[in-house]
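Lab meeting minutes (informal)
Scribe: AK
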Amino acid sequence: MAHWFRSRQWRWGRRLLLALMALLLLVQPGMATAPVTPVEPALVQGTSPTTLEQQARDLYDSGQFLAAAAHFQQAATAYEARGDILGAATLFTNAALAAQQGGDWSLAQRTSTQALVLVESVAAEGRTAADWLALGSALDVRSRLWFTQGEGEQAALGWADAARAYQQAGAVKKAHTSRLSQGQALQAAGFYRRSLEVLSRLRDELASQPDSLTAVITRRTLGDALRVTGDLTQAEQQLQASLAMAQRLQLPDAVSLAQRGLGDIAKLRDGRSRPEAALAAYEQAFATAQSPLPQLQARLQQLDLLITSGQWLEAHRLGAPLWDLIEALPPGRSSLYARIDFGRHLVALRQATTQALTQQQTPAPFWYVLNKKLPPTTEIATLLLTTRQQAQTLGHAQAEAYALGELAALYEQTQQWDIAADLAQAALVLAQSHNAAAVVYRLQSQLGRIQLAQGDRRAAIKAYSASVDTLQAVRQDVVAVSSEAQYSFQQSVEPIYRELVTLLLDSEEPSQAELKQAREVIESLQLAELDNFFREACLSAETVEIDQLDTQAAVLYPIILPNRLDVVISLPDRQFTHFPVSIDPQAFQQTLEQLQQAVSDSRSDTRSVEVRPDPGAVPPLLPPAQQLYDWLIRPAEAALEAANTETLVFVLDGRLRDVPMAVLHDGEQYLLENYAIALTPGLQLLDPRPLPHGDLSVIAAGLSQVGEASARENLGGLPFVEQEVETIQQYLPSNVLLNQDFNVNNFETQVGTLPAPIVHLATHGKFSSSLQDTYVLTWDDKLTADEFSNLLLASELSRQRPVELLVLSACETAAGDDRAVLGLAGIAIRSGARSTLATLWQVSDPATAQLMGQFYQTLSQTQTTKAEAIRQAQLSLLHSGDYSHPYYWAAFVLVGNWL
């Protein structure tokens, strides 16, 4: 058999390797699949197959990919006829590669299958290194084909097998690139956690190797996964490392992609309010890139941010020249999503200008001129139709469904509802047939929106319900299918829940079934928000009927809808009631802000300095407190009284979470004076068991002095903490960790070994809508929400008993963060604690000490519920002379199981 690693073939192989490495940079998301160089087979002497193979290589060199594929295929058939299995398999693999390059996906699939059948016919125990290498190459090419056709999970499995085959062949570098491709395919399928595991291990292995393109892409792809899963700090570190390595290797496109990734992080941090940093990063990425695709991707990210931040004219100016870049793209997965993205942005621009003109927004001439400058709908439709055809050619059903969905959105704009419905339905059938759940839920809601416009409310409810069911089924796997179509909870997911609730409650008298479904949808939205907060579906949920929890508790679900507030109430007798309240959104917002300001007007900067409000500060509180009572409670007064309600449990929505419900005022009394009050993210997350009063003990920890972590955060000591802890010890057996003793190791040991059902922390902490900015301080460390929750969960496993009540008596919510209470709910639920008592703002030390003393006294001496115990403690301050202002007692909220 002739030796075929001659100089000419070797040079050809190097050129193909370089071409594939260039493609490696440009595949999305994570931008890579492993480069596959055609394996040089050892051939049996024979003029015809040798000539065919050489002709195939020459044709490939000249860019005639389909002709090359045909010659490779003929040569492979000849080798197979001569019994040279290895030679035939490698040439079929080369034929598949060339067919992919030429866009003949059917031929690529046939020849890659032929290659796999041949190489797998050799028993594993009898395979040589060359056999394993041929198997790895065949699996590599087949996985690339799956990936291009949108079968990310299947591609990931194939690349994992390819990596193992390469490892058996001793081809370590090829194994590395296959594992990189595996991680990227997992991202494409939405499995970011699994992708992180694969890529983290690969990064660690490559750390001891010289700089390489594989290492550059691994770090960048890892950074992308960390960004999507919410760890922006680590994501930035990986992207900076990728950028530095790409600069050392002088890889301009790789540099551009890392810069774009850093722009994505800047956009997530404060892109809406301050988009300048992200826009500058995208501009830098565009200027650095040398290839059309990374140039276009940088521009598309810029365009998206300009549209999101309402910079319409700048968006038009940026978007106009992109047509040429779009037309220059070769067929492929990345170019499909780039075309879809561009079409989506054009649809959004047309929608914004059309709405502005319809609503007569000023300045009218600006909108009129901008509308005229945008491409006509026929051009946008042509772009999307062409994209759909390319997706069909590639066999990429998911991209085809996306293109059809955007085309349906375009027809929605022109109010051609029947055509829009047909397109959306066709896209939905296509997506469902390929189990593309992340596309399915969007198309289901889009179809519902169109059906509602057609006047078919029943069909719209069915479509929206199906969309919510799909979201519930896939939960965190829906975070993203590609980085081109970024998952945004508030923009893409939350509106679907709200639109369904609106439809269910829109009739004059919703049925009990509709009210029950509306409640379930609201609960599902709360669960989805917590999933989004933690960036993973980490919370188990079970349906719990209210009468199983408390026969004297009513659950209120106020939900904020466009131009109205809708309140669904689940009464103790298992009946539902509902009332809508028409509100002006601006007036509603002002009322909430006025109430927050009035309640917290006399906040002290530290708990050690007593600042007592003037009694005159109370009257400004009453108007907004009474207005909110009129909206939320007054219409239900009779129903609540008839059901003998003693406890009100609120499942709050949006900005209502920032307001302590205890201060609502009926004109004579605060709501607290008539009801015990609790908050919960939803009954699905509750364990209905009451507190075991006969076996109560406490792990009490706190910082009265400035600890190491407090000093790093520029926070002072909390002098009255010692008094607070001493008060707890008067009423319940307590294990105390104070100041230096309250370090992470000691705390972990105590909660892991002592079966105390109550954990009380008198220390600084903050709740935020950001997972990384929600924390609790010990003496020596700052525990993030994840770290703190994991510590408590781990302790539960070792001591075989959950934390019944977690008390955080010195924490506060982040100022100006309208989703900060998510941090409180997140810690409460994720930690495994059945209930959490916390403060929305820092209250003065002596008031907190007095309230906590009363709370623990009530718990220790009576069989009362936790909600009633905190109510009695708050009333003791309300009726005192010194601390009667709501500032002192309203900050304390009970989250979770109130029994």
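Next up, CB showed the second protein from the same session:
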Amino acid sequence: MKNQILLFVLLFSSFLLNAQNSFTITRELRWANEPSLWTLLNGDKQEVWKFEGCSYPDEARSIPVFSERFPISGNAKISAEVVSVQWEAFSKKKSTDDAVLANELGLSTLVEQEKKLFYGRVKVLPIRKAGSGYERAVSFTLNIRVELLPVPETPVTERGGPFTFNSVLSTGEIYKFGVSESGMYKLDYNYLKNTLGISNLDNIDPRTIRLYGNGGKMLPETNGDDRPDDLLENAIQVVGENDGKFDQGDYILFYAVGPRYMEYSPSSTDPELRTKVNLYDRDAWYFIKVEGGSGLRIANQASVPATYVTEEFDDYGRIEDEKTNLLNFNSSSQGSGKRWFGDYFYQTRSRSYQFNFPNAVSGSTARIRGEFVGRSDVGQSVRFEVSGATISRNIPSVNTANGDAPFAANATLVGTFNPAADAITVEVNYPNVSAQSEGWLDYIEVNVRRKLVMSGSSMGFRDLNTINEPSALFRLSSAGSNIKVWDISDPQVPYLQETTLSGGNLEFGATTQGVLRNFIAFNESGDFLAPEQTVGKIGNQNLHGLQDPEQVIIYHPEFEAQATRLAEHRRSYSGLKVEMVNVDQLFNEFSSGGKDPTAMRDFLRMLLERNNDFEYCLLFGDGSFDPKNNTNSTENKDFIPVFETQESFSPINAFPSDDYFGLLSPNEGGALTGALDISVGRLVPRSVSEAEALVNKIIAYDVDPALLGDWHLRALFIADDEDGNAHIKQADKLSIANSQAENWFNNEKVYFDAYQQIATSAGQRFPDAKSAINSNIFKGNLVTQYIGH
């Protein structure tokens, strides 16, 4: 607190930039005389330099950054260059955060959007390496150039159009079911009538049956990326529909994309087939709709002449178990982050994993990829052994004594091998380098060449070697007349491929230039997959029809009654136009029925595009870092999903964030950078009684005369004395900002540094500070803010 901090010298006022423009800014930074000492969870001290107004990036928490925002008249490309810098040497200690430092001033720029308003931002990292020491910028001058970008004619959605106003679920009879894997599915008379619940199936013209669903893929996190709006109709085959009746022997065939799905990763040197795993739902959901008019049916695709002949294909397999979230495993932190891990390597240091690829091409080049994480205070390594090949990687050590440090370190293993048989065994070895070293397998993924020989009731295939060929002839052997082939390159619109059968070989030609064509061959008289989850009939809905709410309350069905009470209160007391949204219905329209936080964000983006006065979103229900309940815990409650960071090792930088739902501009998304377009709040009841208590309290705060005391005018700011009094300065900054924003507040402060600290058998205590906090709490506060550990 005794450090002297001088303010920035601001040399220009706000203005709006137009067209192409450049301007110069000069900033003077006067630093604290001494560094602060932040106390880590293990009690160690970390040196941190600062200047007033600085911030600290997630990737380097001890390095201060200068940041400034300025208004611009539209979306733009912003660049910055250094005109001059005045440096001075200073005595900074080395740290792992030095990895972000360069030999010059560090610069970055970005554009932020709040509703229809745009802002530019420049960030400056004012410390550099200088020989064996360090220098810091005392002042700098930057030239900033702003080039406005063309305005797109329409919002970015799939196929160029805006959000529809009429969901396909708004009319007709709708039935919902789920599938757990990709493949060919059969819905027969018994399933449709007796399981799915289409009781009047005998009186339905099967030609009016439609199938909707977008598969089990997760939605893209960046707003500007393409995605389906509403549900896509799928082309299906309805066997026996031509007579206009759905008889006992009739059935529906369709191809479904499950929650584990293939993605092609193109590379000029080493293309791969990757398996993606849906983080939020164990099933992919589809909808049967019965309504007048003809549904979409699979069409024939003609064979084309081809000179390139292929009798092989690329197959893929992945072993990945979701057992452990490392920050939940860590007793000093709570679960957080997107990543989950499988088998635990501690007492057992070697494990075997089995793959099987029928008719593998012996001696061909296969690819293996995997990830493994280790936790040890000394350097580690991990080794994959497969078919005589060894792939090994070193794993960096981590500071196991520091509770703030990353919990583990990651290693990615990539290599090739030559399979000698259909059965492939991968040995994973994690040598014991210390008594406390421990590791977790993330996944193992294998790409193998197979002979194009029919195997099983169905078999998917594709050939990476055909991508550079104008067309290719696929020759499938061991095939009979009952084998059919569908082109599933677009899984929503598959085609029945025309083929020629000769001597057990099924042949067809397809155009392949620049595209990976995917096919599935199946025995039309063989076994098919069947849905594992059945919801049955659901009511009509049309959230796409909403246009101009000022607030939406997204609630879990368990809390509908209390959410309704709160909505009615906000309408009558606050004068807001409020819409209530059942989160399950939201998922139906915006993520094909599957749980996905991005669906919630997309729904809010639709509302903001239609109404610039849309302002508030309230999420009504607790969330969890474990959306699929991988922990098998009865205490896990994920009523309304949260968005988790990709970072999953650091207890500081891994966290859930509802800010994700308010970042609605096209270039915003999963990085959690940008400016919030709407206000997002959350009530976190875990039971109906908790929901009722919360709503009772909110309404009482507004209307109960007995509660209309001077507590409405009080705000309490509490600050820990750790981290070189950084928390006191942060709390004081908030207190000042609060007074400037609302001058009728009476701010009370309890800063631990101002109270006597007493050593007890249980540790250091502040009894007078505790009494002051209790006194203020019992008097009542509108806001109680605590910053510290």
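CB comment: Residues 1-18, 153-161 have pLDDT under 50 and may be disordered.
No objections, moving on.
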